[in-house]
Batch of 4 targets.
Target 1
Amino acid sequence: MILNFLKNPIIRFLLTLLLLYIAWFLIYNLWLHPKETVDFFVINITIGVSKFFLESMGYTVFTGIERVIGVDGTSGLWIGDNCNGMSLFGLFSGFIIAYPGKWWKKLIYIPIGIILIEFMNIIRIISLAILDTHSRAWTEFNHTYTFTIVVYGFIFLLWMIWVNKFSSKIASLN
């Protein structure tokens, strides 16, 4: 009975996804996050690229305080570990790994997806920094709601592109 249950491709996908999530959770929380090296690396890239684009748009930007970026005249944005995109990288990678497809395609698609997710996070930081020049309340609202929906929607779009264009076994979950 259990073997028949595990033969169901949807159940296998969900169980694989659950196991990958648990593995990512343990690796991140017990090893990567305490060292903070990867978190700081991603945050520094996000701040550096965001600063470049904001200054290219004519804004005077400050970044001297660790994890903070802001437009002069504002209190700035503090980028915490929850907002650096690491959990999104893990979520995206888990969906791609768990879904059927050729491994060599996954090894190409996952890094491309992570770079695109990071780019979305940079757009989010730039947008929030600009919003912060006009209204702190709008900054908080968009951080909490708008950009959460946009970023998760983008990850879902990337996954759907994988499912429809790159997965070698599209019909296997039917």
Target 2
Amino acid sequence: MKIICVGRNYAAHIAELDSERPKDPVLFLKPDSAIILKNNPFVIPEFSQDIHYEVELLVKINKIGKHIDQKFAHKYYDEIGLGIDFTARDLQNKLKDKGLPWEKSKAFDGSALIGNFLPKTEFLSVDAISFSLERNGEVVQQGNSSLMLWKIDALIEYISKYFTLKIGDIIFTGTPSGVGKVFPNDSLKGFIEGKEQFSVKVK
């Protein structure tokens, strides 16, 4: 399986990082070694002094597809989940300044938290799903899929132009505003429509 991540998919997050609004979805990949094993903590890597949380809705692909038309994209997933794209912001900024790829700051070991998945039939619309992240009991991020610059089905169409989607692939659909630094002993909890989907400790 592969993890395909979407950057800059919420206008408020683009603004908070003072980034340029893209004309097309920004894509990058994480390897399977980025996945945090179930019940394991997130361990701050030694090469960064500024790791940020970025909560995101996830889409799990359920069949193989290439060049998927947006009107058929809904057939390629049955579940919606929640996760965190942990980002070494200090390293990312250095790489961006030099025009280099982001992978070292985004795809390092343990940089992808994948929480529980829910059947998409639980939602009235995948384009109106609310989600949030709590850090030590305080809400730090709130988002809704209605605010995505590119909605889920549009992302699947775009991604499948470049990458064949396979069963079990996971799409990280982008983060809303409110990203921030994690510290040792932090507790992070993610919610979809008020229901807890993951809990992770930081070490």
Target 3
Amino acid sequence: MSDTTPSALQAEEGALAPSSRDIVLEADYRDWIALLKPRVMSLVVFSGAIGLLVAPGHLNLVLAFTAILCITVAAGACGAINMWYDRDIDAVMRRTRNRPIPAGRIQPGPALGFGVTLAVGSVLVMGLALNICAAAILALSICFYVFVYTVWLKRRTPQNIVIGGAAGAFPPVIGWAAVTGSVDLMSLVMFGIIFIWTPPHFWSLALWANDDYRRAGVPMLPVVAGAKETRRQILLYTVVLVPLTLVPYMIGFSGIAYGLIAGLLGLVFLERVYRVLTDRQDTKGNSLSNDAPAKAAFKYSVLYLFALFGALAIDHLLG
């Protein structure tokens, strides 16, 4: 597939990132913040904070803030290293080619150094200020995201999001471990919820960013298996997800309020996903509505996870 590789496409399109010797732009603080992927970071930090909040035990405010700060910095480090490694395909994709590295505002070397420094620092501080268990899981999450997802899976298999989704599911476990110094059943339930939520969330995005991934040679599920199969997989994972979100109530960790909210949120998610499945399609499964249902499902999926974990925390605080 030499004609679909990033290097070939760069030669064809001719409108990609300049080489390091041609860079004349200077980065400001906003570019360094952009390296951290703040939009992705917000959900990671939120789920980590929820894990910390609902865990049995207590941390004083300083230690709680330190734990959340470490999770935040580690998430940003993953984003920076990911942008460094993916700078070639980011330059090809329309939605990413203005990122600081492919746009020429930050050179690859400093970006990598920035990410590695943040990663090491976050793990060291977590270990020294909180406990070894939380630090070890934080280190595992960074290594999983960088080496397993970014380096190994992303460019090799359409299951990249399924397996790699574990990286984004670690934060509530880290928050829980920061308080308890251990990994317990409820922390694994939260991990499982995010793990199963990730494929329908990301594949909804991949449906309408399909051309970008094909152009960059990234084997996302819509590129490899087609839009029709992707829609079916989104529905299957959501059908598994909704009952899983009821487990905290079923094992007695949360009350009826959380159970009702989780059920209602899940029904709405299923309805959005069903619209994706029944979207008007051509013979190849491509949307005839500009993937409007997929875009709506993607946006709702973000709100869904925020609301679900928020309900879990509120229910826990109310006893």
Target 4
Amino acid sequence: MEAFWAFCTATLIPALIKILIALVIFWLGNKLIKFILGLTEKAMGKANLDAGVQSFLKSALKIVLFVVLVFIIISYLGIATTGLAALFASAGVTVGLALQGSLSNLAGGVLILILKPFKVGEYISACGEDGTVTSIEILCTKLITTDNKVVIIPNGALANGNITNYSREEFRRVDLVFGVSYDSDLKLVKNLLQQVGERHELTLKDEEHPVTVFINEFGASSIDFGFRVWCNNADYWTVKWAMMEQVKEAFDANNIEIPFNQLDVHMQNQ
């Protein structure tokens, strides 16, 4: 019994106290990390950094701070950090080989933040997906589609693929094609299209962004007119839908035929 109490006094109780202090250090360290991350977020906000850059840096800083906290606790508990560092290094090589795709995504995230092909809030098309960028994280980028689906794309694929950014420029051109029959008055068709484009309040009419109408192609059953108008980026879909509706109304009012495929069926009595 005396030996047991001696063991408790000399070994067990000090060890439990040390573990308890280590838990307190972890709790305080966690609070300190949250405080540092809060200060960093405010500093980045004042610096007007891009939202994607802020998210990336915050995630990276959080990982680094937690690694430092773990090493502090390990050192306090008396575990040799040199051997542990060597173990982490060898494990890191093994994990790195196993997670080459993740490392590629990490490098892709860094490239995206440096080159800035898109930012949070912009509408892009990439990797076969279209949507508004909601966040740029360490390994992936999140989009939300027009029908409210969340799409997650690995940054490696984004950095190595083609990206179309629809939001970067202030103005955007609406390109449409309208087919009319070969019997139509071409000058009348051209004038009607010109009037529709110039009449809408959201289309631009200056010299740099004119309404353009031209014969695009002589098709098998129609003469196809190209029709181009410019508008503010945010008005693209409104203008496109309005142009299609108003052109159809203008053609109907002036008896301009829009050809469509027809099938003639001949019945023969036997």
